[in-house]
Amino acid sequence: MPPKKTPGGGGNTPGKPGDGKPPLKAGGVDASTNVTGAQTAIENKLTAGRGSTQGKGDGNGQPQPQQPRDTRVPPDGVTFDDPKRPNLGSDGKYYLRPGDNNVVIDDPKDFSRTITDIDNPDTSTGVLWEEKSATNATDVNKWVDKQVVKKIEAYIEARQHISGYENAPVGIQFTTPGADPAFRTAVENALANLRTKHPGVDIRVEWAQ
């Protein structure tokens, strides 16, 4: 005689309404179909018992991955306790808010050392802009070295301390129209050299018309 089959537990327990999950068996897992199906059923039961760490179902029983946290926004628990550095969080990172300008970035490991100040952090595009009103200079090469090369490199260094802007584009906005052609050429050449020196950095320039 063929061996008697032992019946599994009876009945189904319906899933929660709207959770996108199929009903779960109340009894044991039916392994008579195949081993893979049994393993899947076990994993599903374990997940249902402890709660998924992923997002809600997509309506087809498939969990959706959680959206990554916007690192430009301070996480819960971060406070801003330094009145001299209102953008510095208690986690050692600077945070930029819409409308911020002239944000001083001091080295978090040595507050006596100021890296730079970010003139115009554009939080909508994610670009860190230095603003200049100059259209020419008495000593163009000296001006470009100090006001373009050193400034852009300071911005590049400062990025690591600004949450969500560690790989942000940096650039210079010239706010006054009518830049002298030789002056403009010197600036453009210096920026080209910086792009070669820092190939992974998006370095930009805007000229007022």
Written account of the structure:
With 209 residues, the chain is an alpha/beta fold. It folds into 2 domains: 1-67, no CATH class; 103-207, Rossmann fold (3-Layer(aba) Sandwich). The protein is 25% helix and 18% strand. The strands form 3 sheets. Strands 5-6-7-8 form a 4-stranded mixed beta sheet, covered by helices on one side. Strand 7, helix 3 and strand 8 form a beta-alpha-beta unit. Helix 2 (140-158) runs parallel beside helix 3 (181-197). It is globular and about 65 Å long. The termini are far apart.
So, CATH architecture of the largest domain?
3-Layer(aba) Sandwich
Q: How many runs of DSSP E, i.e. beta strands?
A: 8
Uncertain stretches of 5 or more adjacent residues: 6-33, 45-54
Number of helices: 3
Structural class designation:
alpha/beta
The CATH class of the largest domain turns out to be: Alpha Beta
Structurally, how many domains make up the residues?
Answer: 2
Order of helices and strands: EEHEEEEHEHE
pLDDT average, as an integer?
Answer: 82
Taking Cα atoms only, what radius of gyration do you get, to the nearest Å? 29 Å
Shape: globular
Distance between the termini: 95 Å
What is the percent of helical residues? 10-25%
List the helices and strands and how they pair.
Layout (H helix, E strand, L loop, with lengths): L11 E2 L10 E2 L9 H16 L52 E5 L2 E9 L1 E3 L4 E6 L7 H19 L11 E5 L6 H17 L5 E5 L2
Parallel strand pairs: 6-7, 7-8
Antiparallel strand pairs: 1-2, 3-4, 5-6
